[in-house]
Design goal:
homodimer; DNA-binding
Amino acid sequence: MAGDERKLQILRVAVSLFSQRGFRGTTTKEIAQAAGVSEAMVFRHFANKEELYNAILDHKACSGDAVDPERMVADALKKKDDRAVFEGLAFGALEHHERDPEFQRLLMYSALEGHELAEMFFEKFVRRVYEFLGNYISERQHDGAFIKIDSAIVVRAFIGMIIHHSLNNNLWDPRRRLLGISNKNAAKHFTDILLNGISSGRRPKQASKSGRRSNGSSNTRKQ
Amino acid sequence: MAGDERKLQILRVAVSLFSQRGFRGTTTKEIAQAAGVSEAMVFRHFANKEELYNAILDHKACSGDAVDPERMVADALKKKDDRAVFEGLAFGALEHHERDPEFQRLLMYSALEGHELAEMFFEKFVRRVYEFLGNYISERQHDGAFIKIDSAIVVRAFIGMIIHHSLNNNLWDPRRRLLGISNKNAAKHFTDILLNGISSGRRPKQASKSGRRSNGSSNTRKQ
DNA sequence: CGCGATGGTAAGTAAGCACTTACTTTGGGC
DNA sequence: GCCCAAAGTAAGTGCTTACTTACCATCGCG
């Protein structure tokens, strides 16, 4: 196998293991075994374990995975289609986390263990979401569409619903014992709550066509 | 130092270290040193590292820390004072997480590392919150006070705002770069958004006395 | 053919790990 | 004052860890 090929393969295997067990909990031997090579090969491609971990950063940033949430809802932003903005962001994030659950674990471990990866993600991603979404909300407040409230609080509330839901699905309750709904439904209902929560004036009380028999332990399953 | 005293001290030190570095990342030597005793003493009181970790469970459950969120807002529930119910829960949780930030880290590590502690917390705490809060919401929907929507989704949305906010304060953004508000304000605004979001009929558009100059990067500091 | 760059390994090494053993100190009751 | 249990330790044990060294194998190329 060619050098660069092997290097990438080791990195991918490492990402998977680091996301499962964290940096401290993953041994270089495990990584080598999972990649089907000897430990020495790992250290030929990466000077040490730390460098292997840091290489994830560049890989995740450079490879196609880098999502730009602002561009994802760019036209909705231009059209001031609030529902499309928030639901689009929510759905995009939920789908992303479902497709790549490893990444969320990796980030959580990274934050807990205090690695650069978490800090970088925060700076390059989270911060920007707060900025552009906060600005959009401010704009709509100026339009009189939203009530007056610190836009950062609104962003936190909305991101909170989404991230917490993903964290539940990926980490705490993967069997969906508490709540099992499709990402589309989740995005829709979170958006409903938020937009109703911050919209000013008369609101188009939605017909609740998906309003459900609502007892506390209902467990909507998708499909 | 008496046996039980020392045992408790070792346990407390262990909780602190486990919360900082996780189970795998904490060595028994470190625990012993932090407790000011030799490693052998740790193993006199706890058969092995795993048992020491599991002892945290009993300790956290038995000691006064065990909060019953349902009882905390019991009279608000009885009076059907929606605002008091949600704001009380939010404020209680936020204060608890601020006073004992170790616990949230411990839980996150526990969930990632797949320990019993996380599972137990989920079963004994999270599940019950979803149940009683879900039931309350269903009741209020039946009263016609809230719109029709799966109550579990509402619970998830609200818990999401709170937990995500605490997680930001404790883990991702302890310096409050994105949002620095008092727990009281956070609880109030999250409750505003949620109650506006799910209340049916005419709503008492709150006067927004605390509505703030709202630009995207505002950074309200408490005090 | 030869030969050097490249992909790969077996077998280390020193430090660190959870856990043990064999021993010393201490303090309260008779 | 003596005794013994309980509190405490120094110095291991065997295993694992991150990382190294010294060596093979295969291939393209003159």
